[in-house]
Amino acid sequence: MSDLPAMLDRWTRREWSSTFTVDDDGWWYTHNGQRMQRTRWQPEDEVDVLVAVQLLYMLNETGPMPLPEDHLDRAREAGMDEERVRQLLMREAYALFIHLRSGRSRARR
Predict the structure, then answer these.
(1) Which of 42, 67, 69 is nearest to 53 (CA)?
(2) If DSSP codes are grouped into helix, strand and coil, which group holds residue 60?
C-alpha cells in the first residue's frame, strides 16, 4: 500500500486552516490546530485519501481540487468522465465530514 500520509502532504497545503494531522492513532480533522472530531479516522486506501483531500479543498474554499492524472485514467477506463469523478468525490467528502463531526461509524461506499 502507498504511504497515505505522504499522499496527503503532497496534495494539500500546510497553511490551510482546515487539515488533517496524522499520528500513530490515526488521522484527525483539525481546524486552526484544534481537533474537530471525537474519534480517529483511518483511511483504507488512496481513494479515501482523495476524498479527504477533496474535503479539505471544500472546507478551505481553495477552488477545484486538481485530480491526479493516473486516477483520472483509471476512472476513464471505468467509463467515468472528470465531472462524474468530481461529483463522487464531493459526495463522499460530505459524507466523511458528517462522519468526522458526528463520531459515528461511516458506511463504506
Answers:
(1) 67
(2) coil
- Mind listing the pLDDT tens digit for each residue in 17-69? 999 999 888 899 999 999 888 778 899 999 999 999 999 999 999 989 999 89
Cβ contact 54:94 at 8 Å = no
- Angle, helices 46-59 vs 4-11, to 10°: value is 30
Q: CA angle, 5 as apex, 72 and 98 as ends, to 5°? A: 75
CB of 33 closer than 8 Å to CB of 45:
no
Question: pTM of the prediction?
Answer: 0.86
